[in-house]
Amino acid sequence: MIFPSKRTEKKSLFLSNIDKVLNFDVETVHFFVANKDFPTKIVAEKFKKALEDALVVYDFLAGRLKVNSETNRLEIDCNAEGAGFVEASSEYKLNQIGDLVYPNPAFRQFVHKNKHFLKPGDVPLCVFQFTSLKCGGFVIGISTSHTTFDGLSFKIFLDNIAALAANKPLAVIPFHDRQLLAARSPPRVTFSHPELINLGNIPIGLESGVCMDSMEELDFKIFRLTSDDINRLKEKAKAGSTARITGFNVITTHIWRCKALSGPYDPNRSSTILYAVDIRSRLNPALPKSYTGNAVLTAYATAKCKEIEEGSFSKLVEMVREGATRMSDEYARSIIDWGELYNGFPNGEVLVSSWWRLGLEKVEYPWGKPKYCCPAVHHRKDIILLFSPIGGNGDDGVNVIVALPPKEMEKFQSLFYKFLI
């Protein structure tokens, strides 16, 4: 265990209704090439010290999840019980472990599982693993409870780790007060929310919602869209549309078509795509950009399979665009209030989560930027991730990480390339 380098205040941290739905771990792997000025032993020491200093500023990371007996709400007990730190080594060199972009299930060995880290029943909110490679390169594997960060606040956390490792002041002062996303009193649900499902009467353990692990056998594949592919999709979307066309909207629509039509075909079946929208700037007043918790909600678009197959691409893109436009201050507050009243989850056929422009690979550590960052392969068939390619500047396209049962994957793959033409 590692602990805050200074004494921290014992307190409880309120979790919003967005945070508490995301009670699962996010595992990321960050690859670094050798740097002769920073042998792995030195990097491990600097990284560990930076983490101990970070646990003072991010005191909740050294805490534990608990249910408040009075309010029956999930919260974080900031009790300084510590985070996990693991040092490991591998007999391989970085250039021997294959294509870093490929979703290699073996990369999960670079991330230590949070569960029961040192004693039974003690589950840290984050565990960091430092794995030194034969070539002097190394891999940092991070497992954090999603209740602690969304993608944007995780990137700020890494920027701050990098600053602390260089003995510099914090890059960004994090804003920890999650009461800004508390439900209104009394809660006011002012919209119907077909993108959410109420699990109130469903027995615990029944698989529902897009956040659950799948028990099926899954194939994992990366589909690479070049900037030319994305521009081609944009041109297709412009036909008959005057709205602003974004790369994210055309990529999401393309994925939606492929996913909706890759299962057993029923023209009258409705397909709903969910996609994450950052609400920081959409609220009134806006949230601080440095807000630490989860400030992401799911927008949605729904259409019948017949319409998805036969309708124009530009119309489908417009539906996806409308889903994001719908996310106003009042709509976001309505979702948060809905979460106060019901035990629920996002409800859709597939969720697209974009890590594409987060910039995890742009974090400037004293020992250099990562060569590549990616999620460890997850077992969730209904979550599709967008990630930057190696190089990370976003100009050379995007990697689409998909996990599907083999037959569905075969169909998805053929549609993916068919619809690009």
What would you call the shape? globular
CATH fold-level assignment of the largest domain? Chloramphenicol Acetyltransferase
Q: What is the total tally of β strands?
A: 16
Distance between the termini: 53 Å
CATH uppermost class of the largest domain: Alpha Beta
Q: Kindly name the structural category.
A: alpha+beta
Within the largest sheet, what's the order of strands? 9-16-15-13-10-11
Number of helices: 9
Q: In oligomeric terms, what are we looking at? A: single chain
Mean pLDDT, to the nearest integer, reads: 92
| Approximate helicity band | 25-40%
Taking pLDDT < 50 over at least 5 consecutive residues as the criterion, the unreliable ranges are 202-210
Account of the 3D structure:
By secondary structure, the protein is of the alpha+beta class. It folds into 2 domains: 11-179, 2-Layer Sandwich (Chloramphenicol Acetyltransferase), CATH 3.30.559.10; 186-418, Chloramphenicol acetyltransferase-like domain (Chloramphenicol Acetyltransferase), CATH 3.30.559.10. The chain contains 9 helices and 16 strands. The chain has helices at 17-21, 40-57, 151-165, 227-238, 247-260, 305-310, 313-325, 329-341, 406-418; strands at residues 11-14, 25-32, 64-67, 74-78, 84-89, 126-132, 138-145, 196-198, 219-225, 270-278, 296-304, 344-346, 350-354, 372-375, 383-387, 398-404. The strands form 4 sheets. The chain has a 6-stranded mixed beta sheet with strand order 9-16-15-13-10-11. A 5-stranded mixed beta sheet has the order 5-6-7-2-14, with helices on one face. β3 (64-67) and β4 form a beta hairpin. α2 crosses α3 and α4 (227-238) packs across α5. It is globular and about 60 Å long. The termini are far apart. 41% of the residues are buried. GO terms for molecular function: acyltransferase activity, transferring groups other than amino-acyl groups. Pfam families: Transferase.
